[in-house]
Amino acid sequence: MGYFSFLRTNWLFLLAGFLLTFTSSYGQTYFISLFAGEIKTDFGLSDGQWGGIYTIGTTMSAVAMIWAGVLTDKFRVRALAIGVMLSLAAACVAMALNTSWVLLIVVIFALRLSGQGMMSQLGAVAMVRWFEANRGKALSLSSTGFAAGQAILPIVFVALFAVTSWRALWLLAAAIVVLTIPLLVMLLRQERTPQSMAQETQIAGMYGRHWSRAEMLRSGLFLLMIPLIVGPAAWGTALFFQQVHLAQVKGWELVAYVALMPVYTASTIATTFASGWAIDRYGVSRIVPFQMLPFAVSFAVLAFADTIFMAGLGLVIFGMGQGLQGTATSTFWAEYYGTRHIGAIKSVAAALMVFGSAIGPGVTGALIDLGIDFPDQMLPISIYYVIAAGLAAYGIKRYQSTLGR
Fold this sequence. Notes:
This protein has about 400 residues and is an all-alpha fold. The protein is about 75% helix and about 0% strand. The protein is built from 18 helices and no strands.
């Protein structure tokens, strides 16, 4: 089935997936980091202190995701999404009203858990369960919510800095989340029954089994995949978290740098669609080993970039990596470990990604305080991606034959 006919037939559920991933934006680093300058000024924080607070709050949310993510195995998306979105709106309000740096840790925890953690988890698990033969297409279409958020929200909110306070903008974010709830409920009024709940449509993983989360954690393949899971979250988060610092060091206007986001988004969306088609046609095993390489190239380009044009080129290549990551990784878990316990399994992956997003800002912020600017950190990060790609390729080659299909 082609993209257009697939979209026409399933647009209600795909739009719901889009809204879930788009709404995760308010807990994503690229959105929170827009307010980094104002937060550091109001709370009297250095780059390292702000990075440390962000790391602590995000790490706490990563730990909580291990248990919270399992809820997607027990509740329908419609019911769970309402609670998560109300929690996210409350976290946005808390950011607007908070005046204590200690409570800032709690606010970051709530934003990251409800936004990046649970909203992203709901979007991915819903697509994996609702669609079987066209899982790659479903994930690629719903994942455009991430890209749309990255393209639209930074430009809109940076522009609004000129007319209102940063705290008022967090109240605006809370209002948008609340207003999205009725639309999502309407779209899922007759929510599709998750295919994995029906015994006859469950898809087994390696060795013809449905792996439990405990079994997955002990498997050799999972251990080899950890750098691939953690890396993009850690250093991709750092790239957006340090965007104010990066622009300052490179001598770029922040508005000019943020204006590159639509170009980055276009690259992400194009690659997302291409990877979704490729996964459905050729299988996820042929995609996963290569998904780290665009990240490696992009960080190398950004390390030496001295113009906005070169920054745009680096972000375009980075977007290619994001497009591959958004579809291939989610499909990988269902393909290799089965769909029966996909919520619990995906919660571990989500926790690792959230934990990675905690490491990146903390490490890069501490190094900046030591006098090592973020551009100087980019080449070692590029090497990390190459190593992660090698480990993933080895794992896929070693375990692919156990799929039996």
